[in-house]
Amino acid sequence: MQFAHNSVVWFRQDLRIHDHPALTQACEFAQLHDSNLTAIYFVTPKQWAEHDVAAIQIDFIERHIEQLNQRLAAIGIELTVVNLSTFDDILPWLKAYCAEHHIGQIFAANESEFNERQRDIKLINAGIPLRLIEQDCVLATGTVNNLSGQMYKVFTPFSKAWKKIASSQPIVPLGIPAFRQPIAAPSLSRFNCDEFYPQRVTSELWAAGEDCARKQLKQFIENDIADYQQYRDLPAIDGTSKLSPYLAIGVLSPRQCVAGILFYYPDALVNDASPAKTWLNELIWREFYRHLLVAFPKLSRSQSFNELGQFIQWRNDNDEFQAWCQGQTGYPIIDAAMRQLNQTGWMHNRLRMVVASFLTKHLLIDWRWGEQYFRQHLIDGDLAANNGGWQWSAGTGCDAQPYFRVFNPMTQSSKFDPDASFIKHFVPEVADWSLKHIHEPHLKAHHINSMADLFSERAKQEKAYPQPIVEHGFARKRALEVLGALKRG
């Protein structure tokens, strides 16, 4: 009987060859045994649809799989794309593949999400030689705990502990493993997703490729990170890193991001006055939410972190939800943000908080509805960050915004888009309005109503934009009453 020494590296949400511990270990294993190493990627469209993965993100993934194919071929590794349906189909496929190709080891990155972890447990219990490597976080999940050995439930102490641990060890990304002579890149199977994703959505607005992502990271840290705190909340300004789509599918690793910061700002982990502090904290928030997914699996299963969330009496008005989805709430800042999402597959982070607060608090619609809609449309869709952000906004999450904090959309509009240039771009219906009326649309609605008897053509055009769906003061009072279910004690 032939001894199984051949190996496989299984790519998941880690579509890169730089700083890829599973790939590096797979290459070392193959060199040690002078054996064959191949790579696989599973396309599981039914599973993706059940997980609400956006069509635009699938297009982005497919573009990067082709890039990955070329990069792997350059180091002598052949990639195979396997079209299945769900995670359940992976076990019989791997069993047959391992037997046919004498596979002794499969190397893959550990994942934080509940279904993915259950899939891996099932494979290992069935005898699949799967070796899981922690690489999706700088500090492995479960390693940043309080003095009682428990996961932190508040971000600030988690962040302090994270920085202390991270500053005590080298954070050095792995290079590309030197493996074998280049081979011709194989022709890959096209993603067979049409049954579950009949509408193709292009991601061409986003450059594809590991080199592009690494270059963008470098340029951001060199030129923009020091101004990030000042400009990150202004949607009309390109003041964010725009790296989230690459982090979400693993074209960049968080370790590359932190190492990049430390190259230019060596004291960033220990100096609270570092110009890099604000963006570093965003990376730590990412880690916090991933650690939470592992510590509290219910977060992957649409459950509120705060158990009192089950007592909230959501209104869940479907017509109002559709108005929010389509950017027709009558609040220009809300509608501009939602239209940005629908048109580009991305939304500015400040506006994610504003529209989430509006949906859950002004309209009293269950945060799960918004979480799902975001996931179905975001190119940077990511369960940990998306769930964490939505529960933070709704007041049901870990270290969440208090239930009684209700963002005022008029204040958010005038503060963060003062000249309304972002709003005017996505809501051209209000381009001729005064700034006061754009930021306080209830004043405009009142003016239109008082002039309606004139039936002028201009009034008709203005009325094409909806009046505010709900009055802020009334909505705030209603939210405080209903979300009072979250009071402790």
TrEMBL record:
Sorted UniProt keywords: Chromophore, FAD, Flavoprotein, Lyase
Domain of life: Bacteria
Signal peptide positions on this chain: none
Required co-factors: (6R)-5,10-methylene-5,6,7,8-tetrahydrofolate; FAD
Listed GO MF terms: deoxyribodipyrimidine photo-lyase activity
Gene3D superfamilies: 1.25.40.80, DNA Cyclobutane Dipyrimidine Photolyase, subunit A, domain 3 (1.10.579.10), HUPs (3.40.50.620)
Photolyase/cryptochrome alpha/beta domain mapped to chain residues: 5-138
EC number(s) on file: 4.1.99.3
InterPro entries hit by this protein: Crypto/Photolyase_FAD-like_sf (IPR036134), Crypto/Photolyase_N_sf (IPR036155), Cryptochr/Photolyase_FAD-bd (IPR005101), Cryptochrome/DNA_photolyase_1 (IPR002081), DNA_photolyase_1_CS_C (IPR018394), DNA_photolyase_N (IPR006050), Rossmann-like_a/b/a_fold (IPR014729)
Transmembrane helix as UniProt keyword: no
Family listed: Belongs to the DNA photolyase class-1 family.
Protein name (database record): Deoxyribodipyrimidine photo-lyase
Organism for this UniProt entry: Shewanella subflava
Organism lineage: Bacteria, Pseudomonadati, Pseudomonadota, Gammaproteobacteria, Alteromonadales
